[in-house]
Amino acid sequence: MSTQKFCGGVSAVGVGLRQYKRGEAPMPEQGVLVQAIVDACEDAGINPADVDGFVSYGDDKNEPVRLMSDLGTKNLCINTQVWGGGGGGIAAAFGLAAAAIGSGQARTVVVFRALVQDNSGRMSAAVMRHHLNDHIIGAGLIAPAQICALRAQRMFEYHGISNAITEELVRASYYHGSRNPEATSYGKELDIDAYRNGRWIAEPFRLFDCSRENDGAGAIVLVADDVAKDLRKPPVRLLGVANGCEKGWGDLLENDTHYDSAGFRPVAKRLWEQTGLTPSDVDVVQLYENFSAQGIASLIDHGFCSYDNVEEFVRFENLIAPSGALPVNTSGGNFAQGFIHGFGTAVESVRVLRGESANPVADARVCLLAGGPGAPTVSSALFGRADL
Amino acid sequence: MKGLGADAPYWQALQQGQLKLQQCSDCSQWHWPAVWRCGECGSWEQQWREVTPRGRIYSWTRSHYDFGAPKGLPLPYVSVVVELAEAGNLRLLGHLAANSDKQPAIGMAVEGELFHCEVDGESIPAWRWQPGNTTTEAAQ
């Protein structure tokens, strides 16, 4: 791998995740967020007042300056978020945090996302407001599920891929979620008949092809490596981040060039070049699955498999920990763990490399986080153990 | 709700029952979404060409869940992305006519007609696509 450390060497040192059923958060959004940030600081063993930077994504409504009184913030040095209403900014947020630390603009940066729907409304509607105009609405396209369904249909029908493979990914997520006490689906594996006969949402998606929506908040604390080594938990290094899109992709009224993809092709290429790593170096993947087919397209885009061999690769046995060749969504992911705009997948990226996952992957050294498939901009990050 | 403004001639043409799409006056690049400046050649001169609403289905989805569809689109309905060969394979959106007994498929030839649906009490012009006569098209 590359000998040059990303942003001079930055590590995730603390995680916090508070998750509730939609509509059942015990307090408003800002309160839940403060709790998650304090949880993350306690996990790291740092004083919340020392956090001096905040980065979010997806149109988070909690402007960091309003958190200062609760956290005791001494200095606010970085407060920003990634453009875009979807989850495509999740990994990019870590890139901004690392850039702030690497450039000396901040020392202790929290990446966060909070979503309590009594305050912020339905997630899906918020995402679509970015894209809706009369041309899209007039076609009856109102929700992300429908846009992703169009792209999924193109992938399956044009490439002749059986859409039965989505079941393999969804089953793997539920297998992990059923074994994760923090997951919404804890204790419940996927009922295959219920999956196959689930009500149609937008073809080719049935109910269980769609992610959940939860209330909650998550936070991850990042510091420079030389600070990280003296904190409570084993640091998890941020190996690299890539974000964005290339010409021919974006907010193009469904005129995107690689329409059958999840938009990661150029982003993944940059991530591999930046880190010197390849798909074969990745031990475990946290996939942001808004919809089942987009999770599969993400795997193809990153080069884990191709349109030709995806049916052999995306097999339940291959995707589960500890025995699978490439365990995916070891916390249950957005389908089975829960969905706070994907933040659970970021938290799990850190936990699985610390050995804290409910579904441990023995000797996992590198984890890919792939965020927001199908969004106008997407982002991916690689995390690695400090002893990598 | 009608985009960021460069597409105004598209909506004006629809009001007159025509499909017009934007093409660069200098390098002939088709643009949709509409642009102010052609990113291919740097030209600020764009023209709006009348295009026959005839193309092929690029992708489709049949919606069964009511996300808040416009009035006039009863569930389930099929939304389509249609590629227009006459306009440099630009893709337009719309829905497949409900009276079509054909299963939608990528590559299916379709012809568009204007359709007015209602959203929040406002009438919106949209496209309804009918399976086209492929033999006629081939003969042309």
Automatic annotation (TrEMBL), chain A:
Q: Which domain of life is it from?
A: Bacteria
Query: In this record, what's one Pfam family?
Result: Thiolase_C_1
What SUPFAM superfamilies does this protein map onto?
Thiolase-like
**Gene3D superfamilies xref list:** 3.40.47.10
Query: Which residue range or ranges hold the Thiolase C-terminal domain?
Result: 261-374
- Protein name per Swiss-Prot or TrEMBL: Transporter
- State the organism named in the record: Spongiibacter thalassae
Automatic annotation (TrEMBL), chain B:
Any one GO molecular function term: DNA binding
- Using the record's annotation, list all stretches that form the ChsH2 rubredoxin-like zinc ribbon domain: 11-43
This protein's record includes keyword DNA-binding: yes
The alphabetized UniProt keywords are:
DNA-binding
UniProt xrefs under Pfam families = OB_ChsH2_C, zf-ChsH2
Q: Where is the ChsH2 C-terminal OB-fold domain?
A: 48-111
Record's InterPro entries? ChsH2_C (IPR002878), ChsH2_Znr (IPR022002), NA-bd_OB-fold (IPR012340), Thioester_dehydratase-like (IPR052513)
Q: Does the keyword Disulfide bond apply?
A: no
Which domain of life does the protein's organism represent? Bacteria
Name of the molecule in the record: DNA-binding protein
Q: Which species?
A: Spongiibacter thalassae
